[in-house]
Amino acid sequence: xxxxxxxxxxxxxxxxxxxxxxxxxxxxxxxxxxxxxxxxxxxxxxxxxxxxxxxxxxxxxxxxxxxxxxxxxxxxxxxxxxxxxxxxxxxxxxxxxxxxxxxxxxxxxxxxxxxxxxxxxxxxxxxxxxxxxxxxxxxxxxxxxxxxxxxxxxxxxxxxxxxxxxxxxxxxxxxxxxxxxxxxxxxxxxxxxxxxxxxxxxxxxxxxxxxxxxxxxxxxxxxxxxxxxxxxxxxxxxxxxxxxxxxxxxxxxxxxxxxxx
Length: 261
Fold this sequence. Notes:
Blueprint (H helix, E strand, L loop, with lengths): L2 H18 L2 H22 L6 H9 L7 H18 L3 E8 L2 E7 L6 H18 L5 E4 L22 E2 L11 E6 L2 E8 L2 E6 L13 E2 L4 E3 L6 E3 L16 E2 L1 E4 L2 E4 L5
Parallel strand pairs: 2-3
Antiparallel strand pairs: 1-2, 4-13, 5-6, 6-7, 7-11, 8-9, 9-10, 12-13
């Protein structure tokens, strides 16, 4: 039944009950109001975890998104970046704000790249999962202790120095070429990111692009926008994103793994 029609019929029914003096029916309406009103007040205030709000949501088979759904949505935001490292991430479980993951990939032995992945995942979780507290990663073999995002196995990227990244200040972009591959380097909040240079729309260089305070790269040709951390297009339009390239900091030098670009 349509909402407006249901409201009109309810009003007519209430008037009829009041006119006929059916006390049982009027009591029923009062009880419905006593149940709904406090629950709706809590839901409107954003407190959907309150027991009263939960009771009403369950009555109508409605509930807020499950924690695991929120976490998977967050991981989907950064999976392109993880895959660019030759890595994989699997959600093992969520409990009281603690997210347990199994990580594997090609960054074994590279603490800098592992830390970059860790920060990217944590940032996505903070944005998409309000209850987020901590990330724990399973340790393969031996004691599965609470080590954060241990990357293991598989092929290791070959990192080469990217001189254009030296002295790159927060908010700045630089276009360079390494081993014949065009790269766009970006410093966002002190962290250097690398992406393949070239607008996905027509392949033009992104020289002249700008980086917003929110970490969005804006193309100088079409104003299409891409997340600097994941390369994903974020302007609401369909289309390919920018390919992210693994970055590491060694002895103050920016290095990128162009062999997996």
